Amino acid sequence: MDSSMPKASVRAYAPASIGNVSLGFDLLGAALKPIDGSRLGDEVEIRAANAYSLEVKGGFAHKLPADTKQNILTQCYKHYLGQAAKQGHQLEPCAMVLYKNLPIGSGLGSSASSVVAALDGLNHFYGEIFDQQAMLLMMGELEGQISGSVHYDNVAPCYLGGLVLMAEQAENIALNLPVFDDWYWVTCYSGIKVSTAEARRILPQQVALKDTLVFGRQLGVFVHALHTGDRKLAAAMMQDVIAEPYRKALLPGFDQGRAFAMQEGALAFGISGSGPTVFAVCDDLAKAEKINQWLSTHYIQNADGFSHICQLDPQGSTAKKV
Description:
35% of the residues lie in helices and 23% in strands. By secondary structure, the chain is α+β, with helices and mostly antiparallel strands. Strands 2, 3, 7, 8, 9, 10, 11 and 12 form an eight-stranded antiparallel β-sheet that branches. Strands 5-6-4-1-13 form a five-stranded mixed β-sheet, covered by helices on one side. The longest helix has 20 residues, at 209-228. The model is unreliable at 1-5 (pLDDT under 50).
């Protein structure tokens, strides 16, 4: 690739995601798409420049460090160019703009969304040097710099779309699973912050054998139910025996939200990632609307909070010339 050639600007979008999906701690993730057409995710613009620069805009830009050297996008840029150099590509600098639309510490894969939008955008801007698996490896590594450990349950669905099972094999990091298109995912962010590191510290270092067996059985049966189209069986497996019993203490109003959602016919109710965002799965739009209204009124804690009725986003991140 001739890195000196003029390049069109690129705009990339990466959706919010649900990590764990209750039953699949660190092994399942789902990309979200609000049904009203609104965008729930971060966006990155990239254009040619004489020197690297980063500008941060958007509703949650003020929550990020003022020094852009500390921003994960700067790390994404350096890492991408470093990996490209190893393959013999000497790339010209670019200017980046991050539209930070997702709240930090929300349980919606906020850092993953920034990482995926940045790296997917850079790869399109520079002529798609890397394939999908190489990109996922980079995304996991960069996300790990923020959360403290490499895990793919946000970056993989954010990048690939849909519902994803982590295989974490060198040539096959993540597997897309069948989904039920008629399920609605009511997703409510309370407005408070729960850091991934804090949410991991609250967990026990060891899991009881009985809980480990339940975890394995639920995940295996859930994947089987998806492949056989058994909605009832899949929904019955969506319970978190690993993290939720401990993490719900960090989420004011969680038990009340669950009680209302299940009473109103939700198939499942759980914590999105580390929280405080919660999600309710419904097979009926009217039920989803009622639960969405209740969570908007009773679970949201401040002006930063919001609630959306979503379905799973089959596309994942997108990047296009502008």
